[in-house]
Amino acid sequence: MIILKTEDITAGYTEIDILHDVHIRVRSGEIVSVIGPNGAGKSTLLKTIFGILKPRNGNVTFRHEDITGLKPDRIVRKGISYVPQVDNVFPSLTIQENLEMGAFIRNDDYSQRLDEVYDLFPVLRERKKQKVGQLSGGQRQMVAMGRALMLDPQVLLLDEPSAGLAPVLVSMIFEKIKEINATGVAMIIVEQNARGALKMAHHGYVLAMGRNVLDDKGEALLANEEVARLYLGG
Ligand SMILES: Nc1ncnc2c1ncn2[C@@H]1O[C@H](COP(=O)(O)OP(=O)(O)O)[C@@H](O)[C@H]1O
Ligand SMILES: [Mg+2]
Description:
Layout: E1 2-11, E2 19-27, E3 31-35, H1 42-49, E4 57-62, E5 65-66, H2 72-78, E6 80-83, H3 95-102, H4 111-120, H5 122-126, H6 137-149, E7 155-159, H7 167-182, E8 186-190, H8 194-200, E9 203-208, E10 211-217, H9 218-223, H10 225-231
Parallel strand pairs: 3-8, 3-9, 6-7, 7-8
Antiparallel strand pairs: 1-2, 1-4, 4-5, 9-10
Helix pairs in contact: 3-6
The protein binds adenosine-5'-diphosphate (ADP) and magnesium ion.
C-alpha cells in the first residue's frame, strides 16, 4: 500500500518556485531516500509534506486522505513526525524532558513508549537527567529522533540525520534508522550522504533544481553509473 505520496508539488518561499511538479511515493514500511545536490529542494519537499510550507499546486496524500495545506499540528496528529536538520532539540532541557515534549499531544500514559524509545537508544536512558546542550552531536540526533518517535508515527521524515557527524557516528545513526524501520515505521530520509542513504533505501529519488530526475530501487540507483558520477562523487 502507498502510505504517503506527493503529486505535482510546486512550492516556494516567495513568488519564485523552488519545487516543480515533484512526485514521490512511500509504501508502508519502506525507507525512501531523497538525494540530490545542495539547494535541490530536498528540505523544501519535507517542509511541504509536513505543512510548514503550503504548496502552490499539487497534493500530499496520506493513507488515501488529502492532507495538502494542513498545518503541522494537524499533520503530526495523523501519524507523521518530522525531524528538521537544525534546531531539532531543546538544549536547555534534559533528555527526558525533550522526549516528554515529543509526547505533547498525547493525553494517554506514554510511559511504555518512553521505555521503547530508551530501549532503542540505551545511552539516552543512562543520561536522562542530563541537559541536551551538553551532549555530543550523535547523541543529540538520537534525542531528536527519539522525540519524533514518542508519538508512534507511521511515517518519519528525517532531514539530514547524519549531517556533521563523524563517520563512526554516521554508521551508528544509519543502523538506528534501520532498527526504527524494522519496527514498521515508513521513512523519508533526505541526505547529502547519498551513498549511505541509498544503501538503506528500498526506493530512492534523485532531485535536482527542484525537479524529479530519476527514481528507482536504492540498489539500482547505486549501480547506475550516471548517478554515481553526478551524485555519488564518482
Ligand atoms: N526559508 C527560505 N526562504 C527562501 N528561500 C529558501 C528558504 N529555504 C531554502 N530556500 C531556497 O530554496 C532552495 C532549495 O533549498 P533546500 O530545500 O534547502 O535544498 P536542499 O535541502 O536540497 O539543500 C535553495 O535555493 C534555497 O536557497
Ligand atoms: Mg536541506
